């Protein structure tokens, strides 16, 4: 330990920012070598998605703490030695408890959260102060929403539920149970895999709440706000809400008061250019009676904290998401932490009795328990309506989630109408055939691109209906197929694949690339927006298609990027010159694909293992497929070890909640 700080340079897995933090603590707070090292490690763990540094894990499984989330590389040169080997000399002869004791003695740098110290030690968890505060505040907000206890059952509730769920014959009917529970507290969590009916359920809940509000004595409609973490997820929810409203068994008045506009969460909270602060916060809460947030697995600690702080105490929050998907790119695994008891249910006798009275439903014994107050407000939807029980995609996703590699391999090897595997040679030429083939490929998209309308493109400076419809069709067709990479860098990562795919498409006569290699812009280039741009109203994750349009004035053509938009034309055109932060999107990372779905999802595994290849990544990749899934790669034999590797993000949210509930 005494050789620090110079020797921090020897820890190659640290980033300059981690070392800078250590140096700052040394110069400003007189931090000793041990605190410097642990501060740098906390900072590195944070960059890998962990809210805190768990000292026990630092000893038991350090390599799992220091892997990148979205910036993984498959070049082995980057990490000459695993972190465990590099750290071994520093921690020889120590234990988690001895480290904690030594840290606690450094009172200028390390505190218990009451004083303003740069680091907070909470048991055997070490935090940067800001994260500890956010986690505390979030836990208190969650617990606060559940503190009021159980409301009485409104006399009308059983009949309303019976009408709304008249078509559901399942026993228990988890959708009905979820709606019933959501009426009794200002927080409800609904988790479930793809197509388990999360949107359908929340629509019925909104109908029920709005019905009660509109037909009450004062007849005031509830202000309902819908949001999702990315623009793409928001557009998808908007589309399924639009379709679902028509089928609701409720009056036209109620239907008219259910919104179908879904904003991004950042926009809902009032993101402002040039600052991380949102317009809505505890002193200026969101004006809303009900807030629904979909794809909640993508919400990191920071955003979850901002969301909870922006809600007035009586605003009802409904979180929807799939707890088994990849966690957020930034630190935290909020939905997974909130859903710790979702699989087992753990419904208390009081909840069981309440539900029996409200719904007439009896939850089977395996789901009984003495769960936390949050478990009582959480429902896991368990039956996929999108995938029949014999669908390959559904079965494969279930096997991966259940850590059952034998079944997953058997399904893939046998193949079926909707799943296949494709072993690739180093040149990956087999993939070229798949991407230019007749179905579930980029062919239909590129053929649509080649056939713009023969009519005029512009009328009075606006796109004509025909051209707008063509652009919308183009955007839709692009979702026929997508290559999802596990990694970003290297030959099997997004960067390598995008170049190869464009060349294959050109070889097949489907695409014309610019003669000059440095010119990245060409008609047909799909682009992915990499960061929120409030000036252009484009969100991280939005996808646009580059098109050549007749110039609005004069001769020739201009390149524009078409993005979907919730407007009359349904599309918006942006000049490529204004798009500084975009990437080509023939291939994208599984992380970036969250919240999207594709007709045919092709998940590409690299040629060697990496700690970022996890069960959640495989599951998320599979569940992006609507009708066809292909697992491709040069080393498909890696699959069982990837399925076995479950992600565990270090966080204290669950522990903070447990503590709050134990000490009323
Ligand atoms: N109780 C039900 N009875 C019949 N069909 C249902 C029921 N619930 C959902 N569905 C149908 O199943 C499909 C998937 O439902 P929904 O879109 O609500 O699921 P989801 O969990 O929100 O899906 P996603 O994974 O896309 O978020 C839809 O076509 C929906 O109409």
TrEMBL record:
<keyword id="KW-0269">Exonuclease</keyword>
<dbReference type="Pfam" id="PF13245">
    <property type="entry name" value="AAA_19"/>
</dbReference>
<keyword id="KW-0347">Helicase</keyword>
<keyword id="KW-0234">DNA repair</keyword>
<dbReference type="InterPro" id="IPR049550">
    <property type="entry name" value="RecD_N"/>
</dbReference>
<dbReference type="Pfam" id="PF13538">
    <property type="entry name" value="UvrD_C_2"/>
</dbReference>
<keyword id="KW-0413">Isomerase</keyword>
<feature type="domain" description="RecBCD enzyme subunit RecD N-terminal">
    <location>
        <begin position="13"/>
        <end position="127"/>
    </location>
</feature>
<dbReference type="GO" id="GO:0000724">
    <property type="term" value="P:double-strand break repair via homologous recombination"/>
</dbReference>
<feature type="domain" description="UvrD-like helicase C-terminal">
    <location>
        <begin position="585"/>
        <end position="628"/>
    </location>
</feature>
<dbReference type="InterPro" id="IPR006344">
    <property type="entry name" value="RecD"/>
</dbReference>
<dbReference type="GO" id="GO:0008854">
    <property type="term" value="F:exodeoxyribonuclease V activity"/>
</dbReference>
<dbReference type="GO" id="GO:0017116">
    <property type="term" value="F:single-stranded DNA helicase activity"/>
</dbReference>
<comment type="function">
    <text>A helicase/nuclease that prepares dsDNA breaks (DSB) for recombinational DNA repair. Binds to DSBs and unwinds DNA via a highly rapid and processive ATP-dependent bidirectional helicase activity. Unwinds dsDNA until it encounters a Chi (crossover hotspot instigator) sequence from the 3' direction. Cuts ssDNA a few nucleotides 3' to the Chi site. The properties and activities of the enzyme are changed at Chi. The Chi-altered holoenzyme produces a long 3'-ssDNA overhang and facilitates RecA-binding to the ssDNA for homologous DNA recombination and repair.</text>
</comment>
<feature type="region of interest" description="Disordered">
    <location>
        <begin position="66"/>
        <end position="85"/>
    </location>
</feature>
<keyword id="KW-0540">Nuclease</keyword>
<feature type="binding site">
    <location>
        <begin position="192"/>
        <end position="199"/>
    </location>
    <ligand>
        <name>ATP</name>
    </ligand>
</feature>
<keyword id="KW-0067">ATP-binding</keyword>
<comment type="similarity">
    <text>Belongs to the RecD family.</text>
</comment>
<comment type="subunit">
    <text>Heterotrimer of RecB, RecC and RecD. All subunits contribute to DNA-binding.</text>
</comment>
<dbReference type="GO" id="GO:0003677">
    <property type="term" value="F:DNA binding"/>
</dbReference>
<dbReference type="InterPro" id="IPR027417">
    <property type="entry name" value="P-loop_NTPase"/>
</dbReference>
<dbReference type="Pfam" id="PF21185">
    <property type="entry name" value="RecD_N"/>
</dbReference>
<dbReference type="GO" id="GO:0043139">
    <property type="term" value="F:5'-3' DNA helicase activity"/>
</dbReference>
<keyword id="KW-0227">DNA damage</keyword>
<dbReference type="InterPro" id="IPR041851">
    <property type="entry name" value="RecD_N_sf"/>
</dbReference>
<dbReference type="InterPro" id="IPR027785">
    <property type="entry name" value="UvrD-like_helicase_C"/>
</dbReference>
<dbReference type="GO" id="GO:0009338">
    <property type="term" value="C:exodeoxyribonuclease V complex"/>
</dbReference>
<dbReference type="GO" id="GO:0005524">
    <property type="term" value="F:ATP binding"/>
</dbReference>
<keyword id="KW-0238">DNA-binding</keyword>
<keyword id="KW-0547">Nucleotide-binding</keyword>
<keyword id="KW-0378">Hydrolase</keyword>
<protein>
    <recommendedName>
        <fullName>RecBCD enzyme subunit RecD</fullName>
        <ecNumber>5.6.2.3</ecNumber>
    </recommendedName>
</protein>
<dbReference type="InterPro" id="IPR050534">
    <property type="entry name" value="Coronavir_polyprotein_1ab"/>
</dbReference>
């Amino acid at each position: 330990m005494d050789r620090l700080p110079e020797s921090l340079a020897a820890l190659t897995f640290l980033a300059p920012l981690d070392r800078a933090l250590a140096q700052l603590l040394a110069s400003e707070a007189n931090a000793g070598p041990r605190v410097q090292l642990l501060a740098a490690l906390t900072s590195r763990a944070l960059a890998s998605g962990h809210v805190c540094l768990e000292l026990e894990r630092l000893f038991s499984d350090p390599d799992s703490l220091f892997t990148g989330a979205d910036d993984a590389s498959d070049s082995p040169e980057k990490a000459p030695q695993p972190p465990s080997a590099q750290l071994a000399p520093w921690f020889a002869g120590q234990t988690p408890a001895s480290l904690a004791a030594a840290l606690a003695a450094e009172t200028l740098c390390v505190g218990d959260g009451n004083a303003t110290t740069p680091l907070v030690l909470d048991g055997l968890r070490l935090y940067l102060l800001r994260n500890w505060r956010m986690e505390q505040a979030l836990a208190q907000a969650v617990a606060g929403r559940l503190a009021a206890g159980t409301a009485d059952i409104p006399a009308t509730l059983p009949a309303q539920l019976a009408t709304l769920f008249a078509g559901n014959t399942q026993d228990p009917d988890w959708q009905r149970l979820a709606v019933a529970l959501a009426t009794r507290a200002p927080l409800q969590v609904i988790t479930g895999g793809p197509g388990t009916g999360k949107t359908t359920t929340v629509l019925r809940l909104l109908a029920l709440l709005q019905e009660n509000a509109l037909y009450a004595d004062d007849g005031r409609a509830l202000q309902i706000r819908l949001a999702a973490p990315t623009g793409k997820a928001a557009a998808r929810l908007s589309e399924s809400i639009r379709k679902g409203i028509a089928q609701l068994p409720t009056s036209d008045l109620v239907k008219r008061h259910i919104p179908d506009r879904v904003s991004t969460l950042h926009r809902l909270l009032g993101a402002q250019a040039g600052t991380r602060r949102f317009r809505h916060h505890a002193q200026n809460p969101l004006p809303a009676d009900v807030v629904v947030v979909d794809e909640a697995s993508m919400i990191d600690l920071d955003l979850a904290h901002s969301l909870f702080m922006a809600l007035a105490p009586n605003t009802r929050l409904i979180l929807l998401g799939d707890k088994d998907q990849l966690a957020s790119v930034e630190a935290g695994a909020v939905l997974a932490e909130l859903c710790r008891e979702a699989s087992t249910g753990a419904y208390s006798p009081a909840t069981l009795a309440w539900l029996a009275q409200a719904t007439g439903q009896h939850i089977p014994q395996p789901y009984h328990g003495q769960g936390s107050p949050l478990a009582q407000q959480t429902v896991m939807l368990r039956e996929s309506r999108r995938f029949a029980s014999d669908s390959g995609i559904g079965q494969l996703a279930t096997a991966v989630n259940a850590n059952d590699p034998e079944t997953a391999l058997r399904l893939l090897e046998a193949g079926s109408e909707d799943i296949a595997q494709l072993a690739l040679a180093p040149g990956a030429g087999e993939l070229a055939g798949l991407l230019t083939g007749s179905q579930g490929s980029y062919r239909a998209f590129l053929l649509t691109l080649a056939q713009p309308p023969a009519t005029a493109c512009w009328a009075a400076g606006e796109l004509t209906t025909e051209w707008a419809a063509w652009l919308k069709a183009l955007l839709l067709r692009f979702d026929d197929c997508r290559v999802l990479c596990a990694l970003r860098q290297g030959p099997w990562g997004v960067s390598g694949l995008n170049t190869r795919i464009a060349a294959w498409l050109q070889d097949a006569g489907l695409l014309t690339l610019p003669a000059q290699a440095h010119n990245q812009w060409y008609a047909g280039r799909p682009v992915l927006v990499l960061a929120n741009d409030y000036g252009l109203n484009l969100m991280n994750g939005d996808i646009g298609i580059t098109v050549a349009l007749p110039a609005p004035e004069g001769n020739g053509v201009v390149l524009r990027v078409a993005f979907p938009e919730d407007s009359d034309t349904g599309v918006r055109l942006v000049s490529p010159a204004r798009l500084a932060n975009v990437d080509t999107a023939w291939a994208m990372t599984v992380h970036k694909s969250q919240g999207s779905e594709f007709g045919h999802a092709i998940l590409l595994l690299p040629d060697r293992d990496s700690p970022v290849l996890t069960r959640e990544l495989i599951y998320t990749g599979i569940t992006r497929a609507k009708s066809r899934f292909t697992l491709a790669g040069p080393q498909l034999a890696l699959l069982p070890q990837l399925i076995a590797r479950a992600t565990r993000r270090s966080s204290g949210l669950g522990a903070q909640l447990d503590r709050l509930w134990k000490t009323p």
